[in-house]
Amino acid sequence: MSQPSALLEEARDAASLKNYSLAESKYKELISNYPQDQSISQTKKLQEQETSILELGKIYQDSQDAEKLNGLISDSRSVLGGFAKSKTAKIVKTLIENFDSIPNSLDLQIESTRESIQWAIDSKLSFLRQSLQLKLSDLLYTKGLFQEALKFITDLLREYKKLDDKSSLVEVQLLESKIYHSLRNIPKSRAALTSARTSANSIYCPTILQAELDCQSGILNAEDKDYKTAFSYFIESFEGFNSQDDSRAILILKYMLLTKIMLNLVDDVNNILNNKNVIKYQSKDIDAMKSIATAYSNRSLKEFENALLTYSTELKSDPIIKNHFNALYDNLLEQNLLKIIESYSCVELSHISKTIGLNLQQVEGKLSQMILDKVFYGVLDQGNGWLIIYDEPRKDAAYDASIDLIKNLSNVVDLLYEKASSLN
Known about the structure:
The chain is mostly helical and 424 residues long. The protein has helices at residues 4-16, 20-32, 42-62, 66-80, 85-97, 106-122, 126-143, 146-163, 166-182, 186-201, 207-223, 227-243, 249-262, 266-273, 284-297, 301-310, 312-316, 319-341, 349-356, 360-372, 397-423; strands at 346-348, 377-381, 386-390. Strand 2 and strand 3 form a beta hairpin.
């Protein structure tokens, strides 16, 4: 039998040659059947087992084998009892995070994280359990199970506040803000973000975490249609992610372009894309944003629709971009419809449909919504297929004044009645 150090070198050599099956067998031998040798210290043994677990996990990550990675997490628990608590936490968290780069492994990652949380509870590893519960909340948020994610968040907030663990508190409060935003509870999302920023101000905040805080601030400002402020936060976030070569930088770049498009500043879009720090991110994602910017600048509904069709994945995969562009499309559709009908008092719906290039049902639906929202005054005569447009009715100021007068007189009568009652 080879010496442990020799086995580790053989495993690494096999892995470098992409002979993963041979590397796997040697790493597993070191993990589960570590050779007995009195000359090897316990510290050396634990170091080599730790290295073997982490390097085997990396192999499964590179080969995108989620099932084997899940098996490794389960099997390695038999030896993790000999490690210090901090080492155990580091190993388990690293293995769980290896799933992040394996496509279509979210469900298995959630299952593995749940099992690891239960193991941490049984082993009385509180720090690991808290870290894994935060990770599980993030995974549930990614899967769209927002209410379940919030349950873990509530418990973690209470624990971290009791421990006065500001660093972990920032992460939990930031995730809470993201979850409430996805639930469309903007006031609670903003409150959670304010708490996260307050906690972050009292500690050293890592660059990536600060970039995430800035990104969330930008998103919430964009919700309020304050796109100038949103852009300033997004540019701070982009610089943070870019400095760490984080893959999320391109998404933040798309958000930066989004704010400029919403402000109809196409020249600014081109200026941003010509920046030396941005050129390396040129891709189909950026082409998609450029095409939307051009279409909106030209006020062309047809170009806008073609861009949405051509770059469907790039423009609809992210809910933030999708929601804002849906609003942008509605705004552009309204402008085009108003332009068509402005010279008519009565117009055929089929003519509007043909002119704008949409089917009759879509046109009827949008015109109905615009009438209800009082964008213009009119009525749909669906029997004849007409749209009848009215002039905006004039408000009679005397009517409103009369209503106010009657209301004030009513208040006076009530007060006089109260006075009379008190005299009796």
